[in-house]
Fold this protein.
Amino acid sequence: MTPHQLQKVEMRRLARALRKEALLATPNCGALFMHQFVKVDMPAQAIIAGYRALPDEVDIEPVLTLFHVNGHPLAMPVVEEKSRPLLFRSYKPGDVMRRGMKGVEEPLSIAAAVTPDVLLVPLTAFDRRGARLGQGGGYYDRTLAGLRCTKTIMAIGVALSVQEMPNIPLEKHDALLDYIVTEKEVIRCSLF
């Protein structure tokens, strides 16, 4: 492992422990994020891709429901192959889901494939430049790189404030976020 990779492993370990502790102290904290997301200038009628939270991630279902009520079409990611970008399928709160390749709930294959305009991105750690650490599989890095070749994509990281690190090491393949939304603030990382 390179020094950067070792540093990322240690940052992930620390951030996961901090996130777990914070989630235990504030269960159902996803609702706190609704007050922050209204501060983000979302493009009208943008297709917003969310995610189904793993047990140790922020549950953004209340945020997705708010976007749905406000007329935004929604999507959820689907893992088709381990080393490929994510595919997105349309989603509405309450839709029946299935367990996907990585054990994460995904829309059924009958749901229409869509290309999102906004991605809500789960993360393990972040810094104020928009650098993020995910689970380590590179899915969102590959996906953002591919989508950004064809259209303008707004990437919004979703995290608890305790997941902030001073300086995430960046590698050539790492995709930066445009915003990070925590339970306390909206951080604008780029000139989107």
